[in-house]
Amino acid sequence: MIIDCHGHYTTAPRQHEGWRREQIEAHTAGRSPPPRPTISDAEIRQSIEGGQLKLQRERGTDLTIFSPRAAGMGHHLGDAGTSEAWASACNELIYRVCSLFPKNFVGVAMLPQSAHVSPRNCLSEIDRCVNEYGFVGINLNPDPSGGHWRDPPLSDRYWYPVYEKMVEHDIPAMVHVSMSCNPTHHTTGAHYLNGDTAGFNQLMNSSVFKDFPTIKFIIPHGGGAVPYHWGRFRGLAQDANLGLLSDLVLENIFFDTCVYHMPGQELLAKVIPVDNILFASEMIGAVRGIDPETGHHYDDTKRYIDQLPLSAADKAKIFEANARCVYGRLSQTIERQAAKVG
Ligand SMILES: [Zn+2]
């Protein structure tokens, strides 16, 4: 089985995002939001069959760990109340996708975060998504202010209620920012990669892994700048008397393969131990075009892994086994959802 650990519902029926616009407009005007729109199963099927499912089949992958559109989380918009209603709507839609296509999609939750609001307010939504929906992870936004970094770093005890909940449910968090509202940080070209790099750096300089020895984080987009600058981070850990970087982070931090060229994949596989790499493409997402140098989509990342000079056993870890290990509830969820199909 080939498991893509990083996919977002970027093709959701249009009325879903339309309601979000109306919700924020109503909030700004001091009005109540309109009722949520009706979205039929047929509309959801159409949005998936012509999108993510089509690409799974074309590219030869089997299962996508699926979450709401990351840029659409918009934690800098509205307030705690609008974030709660929006996260609830987005997660319900992911649950419906997973119910309609139980062999192809397993859910990950978006959190109702807001800048300056304690992440404690996310706990009930995490419980709901794990207990009612069978989701296997969360996306944790280290910068709910959308590019201004106004909340404490991930090393701060501010985030500990979420970490306690992750350990309780045995679910990992993907460190994933949302839309940038800072014009100096392009959302997918800078803010995402900055978020990955900053999140890693905050965690390595923390007591989080001492306090939560079994907690697991995925740093997406190939780890931002981390693998390329592994020597810098090793040196910083050494200078700060933190010990070896590998001892410090590799039980708890994992990297995905959303890197859109072969030299980047080669570097990732050379620097990061194979046990810490999870296959991912983030399709259909940030980069949708075809690379004229290869004739293939930039985000068709399976092609790169296929070409890496690794053993079949190592590739099997990247494609499947590591995801089953990092997402502690994944194997049971795959079995339970497969049983639904019969
Ligand atoms: Zn993403």
Widest sheet: strand ordering: 4-5-6-7-8-9
Order of helices and strands: EHHHEHEEHEHEHHEHHEHEEEHHH
Query: For this structure, what is the CATH class?
Result: Alpha Beta
Count of distinct strands? 11
Strand content: 5-15%
Overview of this protein structure:
This protein is α/β, with parallel strands linked by helices and 342 residues long. It has a single domain (3-341), classed as Alpha-Beta Barrel (TIM Barrel), CATH 3.20.20.140. It has 14 helices and eleven strands. It has helices at 14-29, 41-49, 52-59, 80-100, 123-131, 160-169, 187-204, 208-211, 230-239, 245-249, 262-271, 301-307, 312-326, 330-341; strands spanning 3-9, 63-68, 105-107, 109-110, 138-140, 173-175, 217-219, 253-256, 277-278, 290-291, 296-297. A six-stranded parallel sheet has the order 4-5-6-7-8-9. Helix 6 links the parallel strand 5 (138-140) and strand 6 (173-175). Helix 1 (14-29) packs antiparallel against helix 4 and helix 5 (123-131) packs parallel to helix 6. The model has no long low-confidence stretch (mean pLDDT 97). Bound molecules: zinc ion (ZN). Residues 6, 8, 70, 176, 220, 282, 285 line the site of zinc ion.
